[in-house]
Specification:
By secondary structure, the chain is an all-alpha fold. The chain folds into 2 domains: 64 residues, 434 Repressor (Amino-terminal Domain); 31 residues. The protein has 7 helices and no strands. The radius of gyration is 17 Å and the shape is elongated. The two termini are 28 Å apart.
Length: 107
């Protein structure tokens, strides 16, 4: 299996930004420089297995998602729970209707 380090880097940057975690915070936890994290996010250098595991823990994402872009169902459920926690009852009902309609679509 050949790893796509550019895609891995894009996912790291995307999730880091979504969770409002600074490059400095991640670099410190990985014990690398911010410059090296920049290079990882750009796919210019390879990230080692130890740091992939650490990043999945720091960013609270699966290794499957980080490495292959495959989102596990339990992670999706967690994300839905976070969203639903912020919703009113009316918004929850609307989301449920959309979900039900989506299951009828051939996506």
């Amino acid at each position: 299996m050949v790893l796509d380090y550019k895609a891995i880097g894009k996912r790291i940057k995307l999730v880091r930004n979504d969770k409002n975690i600074s490059k400095n915070d991640i670099a410190k936890q990985l014990k690398i420089t911010e410059n090296d994290l920049n290079k990882i996010e750009q796919g210019n250098i390879e990230i080692n297995l130890v740091n992939i595991v650490k990043l999945s823990e720091i960013l609270d994402i699966s290794i499957d998602y980080l490495v292959k872009g495959i989102e596990k169902k339990e992670n999706l459920k967690k994300e839905f729970e976070k969203i639903l926690d912020k919703c009113t009852k009316k918004q929850e009902e609307f989301i449920l209707e959309i979900a039900e309609l989506t299951t009828q679509m051939n996506l």
